[in-house]
Amino acid sequence: MDAIDAALGAAEFADLLRHDAPLAEDALLLLCHPPDYLDRIRLAIPAAGIYQLDADTHVSNGSDDAARRAVGAACAAVDLVMGGRAANAFVAMRPPGHHAERATPMGFCLYGTVAIAARHAMERHGLSRVAVVDFDVHHGNGTQDLLWDERRAFFVSNHQMPLWPGSGRPEERGAYGNVLNVPLPPGTDGATFRRMCEDTVLPQLDRFAPELVLVSAGFDAHRDDPLAQLELVEEDFAWITGALCDIAARHAGGRLVSCLEGGYDLPALGASVAAHVRVLMEKGA
Ligand SMILES: [Zn+2]
């Protein structure tokens, strides 16, 4: 978060509208998670120190609030763009959310932030076609689980394979063909990534004609990232951001909400977020 704050502290971002992240009430979390899961997370939060939910996912006494603020921020961003008070939005929050399944925390994630934002857009704003595009280097298994049988959503994930969590094969298509998984081999560079998007992801998004585009914006497909072996650079993130904004412009009045997921090389993360937000500002102007 410090790396992102520093990057977005540059003069070119001075005109951004900045909002505090509200704490999500249970009602929002219940759009995707069962009540006993909320209790389980609450009970796991230690008074002091760290508690390990699994090998990757650790919580301290601030974790539930932080994860709830990520959800609250994503839903507030949906409200802003649906109300016409912002053209698009970037939700700079951690922890990420796209690995949290219905009743299982995973991969640093407690709640399915972007899936909850999608359900919120459907329930609160009456949308019937919400696209969720996940370009984090890891498969968005949690988002896929939460939206698997959701006819109103189209979930697209491109990710390195083989790589943790191991899911995200092309045969995983959702209950209604509403899931598109595009695995990429280690070493995939920006040119190959763009060609895959132009051949597969963007045409299918156009056919879906979303009323709102949500993005799981992970920046760990960057070539400097220590967690994976894709070879993207800032310009590739700017390119996909522009392409997704163009989809939103064609079908959704430009409405796009991007939620931070991964990104673990701090200089690459800051520079990639700056490239991403720069395009959101240009396209939203
Ligand atoms: Zn990731």
Q: What are the key terms here?
A:
285 residues; 6-stranded parallel sheet; alpha/beta; 41% helix; binds zinc ion; Arginase, Chain A; two-stranded antiparallel ribbon
CATH architecture: 3-Layer(aba) Sandwich
Q: Termini, distance in Å?
A: 25 Å
| Radius of gyration, taken over Cα atoms and rounded to an integer in Å | 17 Å
Runs in which pLDDT lies below 50 for 5 or more consecutive residues are none
The ligands found in this model are:
zinc ion
What is the CATH top level name? Alpha Beta
The CATH homology group name: Histone deacetylase domain
Report the oligomer.
single chain
Question: Total strand count, please?
Answer: 8
Average pLDDT, to the nearest integer? 98
The CATH topology is Arginase, Chain A
- Domain module tally: 1
Task: Give the percentage of residues in beta strands.
Answer: 5-15%
Query: What is the topology, as strand order, of the major beta sheet?
Result: 3-8-7-4-5-6
Molecular shape: globular
Give, in order, the helices and strands. Answer: HHHEEHEHEHEEHEHEH
Query: What is the overall number of helices?
Result: 9
Helix content: 40-55%
Helix/sheet category: alpha/beta
Major β-sheet profile: 6 strands, parallel
Task: Describe the model.
Helix 5 runs parallel beside helix 6, helix 7 runs parallel beside helix 8 and helix 8 runs parallel beside helix 9. The chain is an alpha/beta fold. The strands form 2 sheets. The protein has a 6-stranded parallel sheet with strand order 3-8-7-4-5-6, sandwiched between helices. A two-stranded antiparallel sheet has the order 1-2. The chain is built from 9 helices and 8 strands. Helices cover 41% and strands 13% of the residues. The model has no long low-confidence stretch (mean pLDDT 98). The protein has one domain: 3-Layer(aba) Sandwich (Arginase, Chain A). It is globular. Strand 1 and strand 2 form a beta hairpin. The structure holds zinc ion.
